[in-house]
Structure formats: structure tokens, C-alpha cells
Specification:
heterodimer, A: about 260 residues, alpha/beta, TIM Barrel, 3-stranded parallel sheet, 9 helices, about 15% strand, B: about 70 residues, mainly beta, Ubiquitin-like (UB roll), 5-stranded mixed sheet, 1 helix, 5 strands, about 10% helix, about 40% strand, Aldolase_TIM (chain A)
Chain lengths: ~260, ~70
Amino acid sequence: MHQLTIAGKAYRSRLLVGTGKYKDFAETRAAIDASGAEIVTVAIRRTNIGQDASQPNLLDAIPPSQFTILPNTAGCYTADDAVRTLRLARELLDGHPLCKLEVLGDPTNLFPNMPETLKAAETLVKEGFQVMVYCADDPIQCKMLEEIGCVAVMPLASLIGSGMGIVNPWNLRLIIDNAKVPIIVDAGVGTASDATIAMELGCDGVLMNTAIAHAKNPVLMASAMKKGIEAGREAFLAGRMARKYYSADPSSPTSGLIGS
Amino acid sequence: MLDLKINGEVRQFPAALTVTGLIDQLGYTGKRIAVERNGEIVPKSQHATTQLAAGDQLEIVVAVGGG
């Protein structure tokens, strides 16, 4: 019950991490280990024909035998390109159907193109993919993605790579309260308290990359994020006290004071 | 001569090639890659039997760091 279940598979960690923007594969691996993440995103790109083919491969540092690899469609601006990319990813990962769909709409803000995202999701679900989908924090379109058959819906907290945190917690609450699949905040988290807030709202998990990779000490930030996620989840399950806007309520007894 | 467009660039090969032969010539044997030919995936199980034709458009991809 306290595990995150996506497409029938249970995960202990509710933190999902990316592999971009690190100094090298050793740092990538060290940060992922410190984060405790089990689901790790990768991008799919053309090989550099003619360059040294013996260069190390990301999947040697992050082996699919140890991690659930989540190939993404970052950089795709049409449903067709995203679908093509994920067909290649599935071939690359020996038929592994779990994927992260993102269809972007604008190169400056990386906001998702929702009509293309919905179109790609329909095709991918029909082809047997288990689609985790990056999307706008629009409760209606999030529900549409769930109804198409996506296995997790992943609204942005703020712009990709911005570190601006949770800019619209009320939309996230609407999405969470109305969802039957895991809701995972994807993008925008800047520091551990942002991850905690997302989890306190009732999100099932958080996916992040830049907040860890671009911290001054990525490995330490990965550890902080792990704790932030766990703290937020426990606080959500514990149920926070009611807010009292107009009156204080002492924590210590009001009787038995000396001199009374 | 066999002209192939690989990852957007035209390259010439001296003789007939299968996908397996191409992967070998590019130094990718044993590497974790995926191949698309003219818009269709070529599954690993068919690399050895898929004969390439002049003008084929190929995409060869790998996993890289990303979020």
C-alpha cells in the first residue's frame, strides 16, 4: 500500500530521476544511487557515425538489469516523431514497453503540445506501450490521458529545468483527487522542499533531473531529494493538522501554573 | 556501390550489405543500438537476414542521458 505501483509493478522509491546534464557517467551513477531511484529516464538519439564506437554507453553505467529504464521522447514536437522514437526505444530495450511520452510545443518554454500528446498516447497505448505521460497541469486533459489508458499521468510543476517549484498546487490537487492512476509531478522541482510539497499534496511520485544534476553537489542533493520525498509522503499519509487562521492553541497545559 | 542514408548522412559502401554487416562496418557489433529502416523497425532477430538496398534511409540510435 505504501509502494508506488505503475503498470502492475511495485516500486519502493517514489523518486524517479533523469540522467541528463551530469559531468560523466560515474557522477550520474553516484547520484542515482544516492537518490534511491529505481526508475531512471534516458533519451534516444542518433549514434555519431564515424566517431569512436568504443566510447562508454550510458546503459553500461545504468544497466537495465538493475534499473527500470524509462526512455523519453524529449525533443519531439509531433506525435509521429514521438511514436517513432519510442518504437526504436522498445527495440533498443528488448521489448520493454514502459516509456515516457512528451511532445513539446515551444522550444523556449518546453510546454507540452497537448493535442499531439493525446494523439501519440492513443497510438502508443494501442501498440501495447505502457505510457507515462508528461503533460500540462490541466485536470481535464490529465483525465483524458488516463482514459486513453496511460499508466501514469505526469503534470509539470513548473517549466522543465526551471527549478521554480510547485507553481499551481491547486491544479495538482484537482488532478490528484480525480485520478485513478499514479500522478507524478514531472519537471520544475528545484530543491528538496519542492519535492516534499508535491508529496504532501498527495502526488504518487516526483520525476526530476536538473534539480539534482545542476546542484553544486549532485550526489548530496540526490540524497536530500530522497529524504524530501519520504518526508512528504509520510506527512501526506499522517494527515496534517487543520490550519487555524485566527486563534492560537497552546501546546502546554493551561492549568497548574505556579502562582495561580 | 551501395548508397545509404544513415542518420541523415549519405554514405557509400563498396558491396552488398545486410543490417548485421552494416553494424559490423560501423563498429557497433555487441553495442546496445536499435535500427530503423525506411521508417520501420528492423528487429535484432532480423538483422542478419535484412538485405539493404540503395537509397535506404536508416536511423541507428542509442540511449543517452536525458530527463
